[in-house]
Amino acid sequence: MVFNRGPFRIGAMLAACVAGALTLVGAPAAQAETLRVCADPDNMPFSSNTGDERGIYIEIAEKVGEKLSMPVEYVWWLTYKTRRALRNTVLQNDCDAVFALPAGKGWGMRGLIRTDAFLHYSYALIAPKDMKVEKLSDLKSKRIGVQFQTNPHVLLSTQEGYDYNTMLTADELLEALHEGAVDVAFLWGPVAGYELSRRADMGRWRVIPLAGPEVEGSVAAALRSDHEALRERINGALAELAPEIEAIGRKYGLPSGEPLRIDDWALPYGPRGAAGKAGSTGQGSEAGPASGQAPVAVAEADTKKVAAQAAEAKPQVDETAMIDSGKVKFNDVCSHCHGANGFSPVRIRDLRRLKSRYNDDWPNVARTTIMEGRNEYGMPSWRGTLSEPQIDEILAFLKTIQK
Ligand code: HEC
To answer: Probe ligand 1: pick from 379, 383, 395, 399, max atoms within 8 Å of CB?
Structure first.
């Protein structure tokens, strides 16, 4: 996930699951000593109920069942609308365990407990084998493909100097690579590794895992909170199975090897915004707040830019102070929905477009929207939360980012 609210959300995985109806096919009756596992019937490389390949989670669940001498039964369940699906399955005791949900603190649901994390995932960069990629800035001269609203998209949108194209699906991205429309692509690591290992031109590419806040996370199995004892047994099995689990990951092409670190791409004010969303899906966002350092560079660069723009307009000294203070306030309370500095990849939330959208009336529209909110669309009202002078400061800052 861009990091939607839930950053790492399994982000993508889970994230991938947002849409569509919940389908329960033949939930088996509860039986003593059977391990009933809820899994998605069509979510490779994670799980599938057809074909020879069962997917990473199914193979792991089978191994766990073997270890515990519990035959595994499956309740196939499309992971769309994850929370609703969980309420209708594991929380209703239709199955004992769900493989898998985000392991980190950033995710949780009342009534569920989780095992220890058993797999680590990250976003990855797909690059030609012969391309030198040692640091992110090596990509500045490249055409980059990125999936809409995933964390790498949000991160890219906060950086200067990268030439990127957004695409909606992993398939489009892989197609663009194949046709040479982009040179490299950011994709959820498990999907990248799995898809490439199954495509004919795979020999040309390598998949480099990413490391850093916002782009990695891990998953755990989830159980009903009254299944503590079973959780402990599963934990024991998972620990013993570590080498087998690693081998299963390799079999499905999970990216491994030296990661490309992108710490310096941390969002200036933490992962809440963009990351959060992506997170909702589970890909990635456990990672916690952005580290303090890299963000400083970003903030400094931005401050210079704002200062330069302000100088152009010959503002008075206290206007500059107002802008700075509005920017800090904005990034404190608005950026998790509108992106750091208002640069959201989601068009309607991109506050750089206010002027082009509403012409000279934009400050009025913005002020009214901030005061009244647009509740039906998810924009809260700030009346009573922000004072008039604080809103003035935010507007002064927003003025500096208009296109
Ligand atoms: C919980 C998420 C959220 C937060 C927090 C939030 N916004 Fe919004 N905001 C939205 C959404 C969603 C929209 C788009 C509403 C729509 O579709 O018309 C929006 C719209 C706007 C618009 C109008 C954009 C346009 O082009 O019409 C402005 C201006 C705005 N927000 C400013 C702010 C400011 C300033 C803050 C912080 C004080 C803030 N928002 C905090 C979600 C949020």
So the answer is: 379
